Amino acid sequence: MFLVKAIACGFLVGALAAGPAAAQGLNLQLQEIQTLIREKRYPLALESLRLVARQIQDLRLETVAPAFPAAPAGWTALPALSLLDEDEIWSSRVVAQRSYVAVPGPARLEITIDLHSPFGPAVALSFNPLVLTGDPLSRLVPLGSETALLRFNPDTGEGELRVLLGRDTLVTARGRGINSPEILINLSREVDSALLRHAAGL
Is the Cα dihedral 82, 83, 86, 89 positive or negative? Predict the structure, then answer.
């Protein structure tokens, strides 16, 4: 029972960020889970806990989604999606992605936000100028108060821009079928980094 109370406490802290109504609904579900445990219906209790964890991650996605920029002129933005693996729903990590489609045309953009990313240290190392000397397609570019790592291949029209906010919030913009890296740079500038820095604590 102590474990359920500990999990409940953690879940409700996250739910409160989305509002009292969400917290109240989850509190009722957690009370039902405690009843299942008292009745020793453990498999059902575990499955119910997994559903609650998924709901919490959906609430966290709603918190992060406003950080995505609006679609550039001539593009359509698709709804933000969670890319979190099923076995990661218990973690503090949030992985969200929004896609942008050119109208008309085959070009496509994607922005991925990875809060509490395990890849932060490795990405930080890739910003080393000595590492970049081995790749003529890569360069560092200013992005507001941040520095971004840009890689663009003019022959294929594919590009990627990465920026690390703090120690473990990674924002990645990718483009296919684009004729300039500037669209990646301009779109990434519109990401609400202040919101992400706040959301990293949720």
Answer: negative
